[in-house]
Specification:
Elements (H helix, E strand, L loop, with lengths): L11 E5 L5 E5 L5 E4 L2 E4 H4 L6 E4 L5 E6 L2 H7 L9 H10 L7 E5 L5 H10 L4 E6 L2 H15 L6 E5 L14 E6 L8 H7 E11 L2 H14 L6 E3 L6 E2 L6 E2 L9 E6 L17
Parallel strand pairs: 7-8, 7-10, 8-9, 10-11
Antiparallel strand pairs: 1-2, 1-6, 3-4, 5-6, 11-15, 12-15, 13-14
The chain binds S-adenosylmethionine (SAM).
The site of S-adenosylmethionine (SAM) has 22 residues, from helix 4 and strand 8.
Length: 278
């Protein structure tokens, strides 16, 4: 699939009707898509610019855009819950996922975060994604391959338990580690052993007990900076004249993000001095 320019065969295209309903098709020369308002000929879309309107044989209008990654992530089949775009955006920036980075991820789940990481590290980077469940790994591979129209060369999806992974398995230290799993505190020794000094570690947990356990676990290793924890809340707004106001509904909670950096070996970081509470 191309990412920009006029539509080409192989592009995944989202058609939107007058009622803002979406239909997704993959363009092929001579192909047809049948709606309840007649057929749409793919050839009428191929060669047009994105944002064009095509008509079905019964005269209904459909707006055409390529599927964005966010559309793919929210509509693709899932084995496990995906990291939502608002949170993967935080991971990319706060996790400092740079072009050329070597990133270790677990679990691969449905492959949603893998896609964002793969795009961010670029062709000179590498993403190694461990997944303990064969069925989930199959979902991740299918979803990633479908989005990139093939297996990306910079991706190494692996079936296995992260708890057993060593630096040797990874061909040396990694620059970043991102965990999205039920019990990340069980993998903290692995993270410490494989992450390069200065490397960023982020993990994503849904509940307060998990948050407490992983924060305490990070402190106990004495190998990381004081961890930070936060959540991101995104509230959409309706903007229509005097009816301008926040939307009534929002995804109020997805998960907490936790962030820390690997210290150099043998270092005791300066800790803030807290006055004893009376
Ligand atoms: C919530 S899902 C990850 C979703 C993924 N981040 C995404 O965006 O699609 C958590 C996954 O972690 C996997 N998992 C749990 N413990 C693991 C371990 N020790 N090693 C590797 N994978 C593990 C689970 O099987 C599950 O598929």
């Amino acid at each position: 699939m191309a990412y920009s320019g006029p539509f080409q065969p192989g592009d995944r295209v989202q058609l939107t009707d007058a009622k803002r309903r979406h239909f997704t098709i993959i363009l092929e020369a001579g192909g047809q898509y049948f709606t309840h308002k007649g057929a749409i000929n793919h050839d009428e879309i191929i060669g047009k610019d994105e944002g064009s309107v095509v008509q079905s044989t019964h005269g209904a209008d459909y707006l055409c855009f390529r599927h964005l990654m966010v559309d793919h992530v929210l509509s693709m089949p899932r084995g496990a819950a995906v990291i939502y775009p608002k949170d993967s955006a935080q991971i990319l920036v706060e996790g400092d996922i740079f072009p050329g980075a070597k990133v270790l991820e677990a679990g691969a789940g449905s492959g949603a975060l893998s896609m964002s990481l793969l795009r961010a590290v670029g062709e000179h980077g590498q993403v190694i994604s461990y997944e303990i469940r064969e069925d989930h790994l199959a979902f991740a591979k299918d979803n990633v391959e479908e989005y990139f129209s093939g297996m990306p060369k910079n991706w190494s999806p692996r079936l296995g338990d992260l708890k057993k992974v060593t630096q040797e398995d990874l061909g040396g230290p990694v620059d970043r580690v991102i965990l999205d799993m039920l019990e990340p505190w069980e993998c903290l020794n692995v993270v410490r052993d494989v992450l390069i000094p200065g490397g960023v570690f982020m993990t994503y947990v849904a509940t307060v007990p998990q948050l407490m356990k992983v924060m305490e676990g990070i402190r106990e290793t004495q190998s990381f900076t004081e961890p930070r924890a936060w959540e991101s809340l995104v509230r959409e707004w309706k903007v229509e004249g005097l009816a301008t106001r926040p939307e009534h509904r929002m995804n109020a909670h997805t998960a907490f993000l936790i962030w820390a950096r690997r210290l150099a070996d043998g270092v005791t970081p300066p800790r803030p001095q807290r006055r004893a509470r009376r």
